[in-house]
Amino acid sequence: MQGLRSCSNDMVQLDLGGPTSASSLSIDDAESAETRIQRLISEHPVIIFSRSSCCMCHVMKKLLASIGVHPTVIELDDDEIAALPSLAAHDSNSDDHHNNPRNSAAPAVFIGGSCIGGLESLVALHLSGHLVPKLVEVGAL
Fold first, then answer.
1. Pick from 44, 103, 121, 129: most CB atoms within 10 A?
2. Are 90 and 107 in contact (CB under 8 A)?
3. Tens digits of per-residue pLDDT, 41-71?
4. How far from the centroid of its chain's Cα atoms is residue 56's Cα?
5. Which residue in 87, 74, 78 sits closest to 36, CA to CA?
C-alpha cells in the first residue's frame, strides 16, 4: 500500500508506514502506526479498521448505514493490524493469535473512541438496543 487511496465509494485504504498525499485523513510521517491509529480513533465518531475485501466489514457498514451512520473505514495490512489497541488484549490471550495476524479480531469498530469489538459485538449492541443511544451520544446520529 502506498499512502491514501480510494478503494470503493465509501472506503479508504491507508498506509500507516509510508509517504502520503494531503487529504482529510492527514498523516504525519513522524507518527508511529499506533499513534496514527489512536489519532484517527479520536478524530472520527465511528471508525472501522479492516482488511481488504473483508465481508464482515461490509456487513458492519450495512448495519450502520441502515440506521443512518456512515463510518470511516480504514483498510490495514496484516502488519498494521497489530497496532490496533483492541487487538492487544485478544493477542495476549493466545500465542496463536499473536503469531498469526490473520487470526486476529479484525475488523474492529470504534464508537466515540471506545472499542466496540468486531461484527458479533456490534450486532449484540444493536440487538440489545444500546447501539443507537451510543451513536446519538457521540454525535454520529
1. 44
2. no
3. 999 999 999 887 788 999 999 999 999 999 9
4. 12
5. 74
Contacts of 136 (CB under 8 A, 6+ apart): none
The set of cell numbers assigned to 105 is 479480531
DSSP letter for 141, please. Answer: -
At residue 86, the 3 state secondary structure works out as helix
Reading the block at residue 138, the C-alpha cell is 457521540
Helix 55-66 with 119-127: angle, nearest 10 deg:
20
Peptide bond into 85 cis (omega under 30): no
What residues in the chain have per-residue pLDDT under 70?
Answer: 1-29, 86-105
Strand 108-111 with 72-75, pairing:
unpaired
